[in-house]
Write a structure and sequence with these properties.
Layout: E1 4-10, E2 24-29, E3 32-36, H1 42-49, E4 58-60, H2 66-69, H3 72-81, E5 89-91, H4 97-104, E6 116-117, E7 126-130, E8 135-140, E9 148-153, E10 157-160, H5 162-167, H6 173-181, E11 183-184, E12 187-188, H7 189-192, E13 193-196, E14 200-204, H8 211-217, E15 222-226, H9 234-240, H10 245-255, E16 259-263, H11 273-281, E17 287-290, E18 296-298
Parallel strand pairs: 3-4, 4-5, 5-6, 14-15, 15-16, 16-17
Antiparallel strand pairs: 1-2, 1-18, 2-3, 7-8, 8-9, 9-14, 10-13, 11-12
Length: 303
Amino acid sequence: MSVRELTVLGTASQVPTRHRNHNGYFLRWDAEGILFDPGEGTQRQMVRAGIAAHDLNRICVTHFHGDHSLGLAGVIQRINLDQVPHPVIAHYPRSGQRFFDRLRYSTAYRETVGVTEAPVAGSGMLTLAEGPSYTLEAHKLSHPVESYGYRLVEPDGRRMLPDRLAAHGIKGPDVGRIQRDGVLDGVSLDDVSELHRGQRFAFVMDTRLCEGVHALAEGCDMLVIESTFLDEDARLAEDHGHLTAGQAASAARDAGVRHLVLTHFSQRYPEPEEFERQARAAGFEGELTVARDLMRVPVPKRR
């Protein structure tokens, strides 16, 4: 049985607190594991969450501020120490190649695993990888340093409708035939089935409201998004290239997001309740999670 679940490894922004580690998010998507924005302390948080280096297939870094990337050194060295037997692919802004190189080789270690570098560059919605269970996309965001958000899009599928099959007398091997050929004795596949859209997951970190936020969030089943500031500090958010709780929630509302996960909180706010209140006040009516360290959040089931 496939598992699609987010594990939150850290929820702090620039300054960690006693209860919030720096950023880190692990998405289990069927047989693959994707690590987003490994900030300082990510390796230890992975141990606490029961996530092994062997679980990693991709690393996606939005940008090279320290709270989103300083954990790269430890994670990459752990991948090598544990001799992960499968390829691990790293995505990050091409403009930050020098930072990636410094982190990858920041100390001496025995390199036994070749982490594949796949830097991101360009505008609009970019396709980074395609496979049977998802397409990985990226879109540029608006932050003082170049930053990209990421999105997984599952291919659309088709659901067979038993009542319509029965009405047309289609059963047994004929079900497979009409699925394969698209038509059987004058009955089309559309007559006995319906499309169901694949799941979508988006990860949006440090950014102001911009085209990229809306494009990545569109139609997502789960949106993990920064809400560094509360609404009363909107000027600070704009000045520093961040979102408020209300802005993140309004973007999710307009995009039809089913489950909104708010994270990346400034240390000035010790309690999370106000983030939820302001998100609801912005009109978001779907599932809402104010993230906590080491929380597990299932991706909503297919529609």
